[in-house]
Amino acid sequence: MANYAWSRPIALRTSNDAYAEDCTFIMDSPISYFDTLTDEDFGGRMCMRHCTIDFSKFTARYEFGSIWMTHGNQAYWKGNQNQDNVRGTITLELL
């Protein structure tokens, strides 16, 4: 099971991806911390297309994580899905 996502062929713009399309993400109140909009790992595949991201109301200078977080193979995959052994993202397509 741990390698299932990695055994599927990469097929961009198909049902093998998670999609966010024609969306608007607005930070409409001044919060003090923001971690991430998306977070992919463990063989994840994602496509965001024709989206608008407006974080203009975010005012905390040093408390912003990322918009897209795609984890790599930090611990050189050993077969355990735990915090110290994260297998990376396969694709993130931004249009």
Description of the structure:
With 95 residues, the chain is mainly beta. The chain has one helix spanning 4-7; strands at 18-21, 24-26, 34-40, 45-49, 52-54, 64-70, 91-94. The strands form 3 sheets. The protein has a 3-stranded parallel beta sheet, with no helix packed on it. The two termini are 31 Å apart.
Summarize the structure.
About 5% of the residues lie in helices and about 35% in strands. With about 100 residues, it is mainly β. The strands form 3 sheets. A 3-stranded parallel beta sheet has the order 1-4-7, with no helix packed on it.
What characteristics describe this protein?
single chain, 95 residues, mainly beta, three-stranded parallel β-sheet, 1 helix, 35% strand, flat
Topology, element by element:
Elements: H1 4-7, E1 18-21, E2 24-26, E3 34-40, E4 45-49, E5 52-54, E6 64-70, E7 91-94
Parallel strand pairs: 1-4, 2-5, 3-6, 4-7
User: Could you give the order of strands across the largest sheet?
Assistant: 1-4-7
Helix content: under 10%
Based on Cα principal axes, name the global outline.
Answer: flat
Largest sheet descriptor: 3 strands, parallel
Point out poorly predicted stretches.
none
- This entry's quaternary arrangement is single chain
Record field, number of beta strands: 7
**What's the overall average pLDDT, rounded?**
76
Rg to the nearest angstrom?
A: 16 Å
**Number of helical stretches of at least 4 residues:** 1
Structural class call reads mainly beta
- Cα separation of the termini: 31 Å
Strand content: 25-35%
Helix-strand sequence? HEEEEEEE
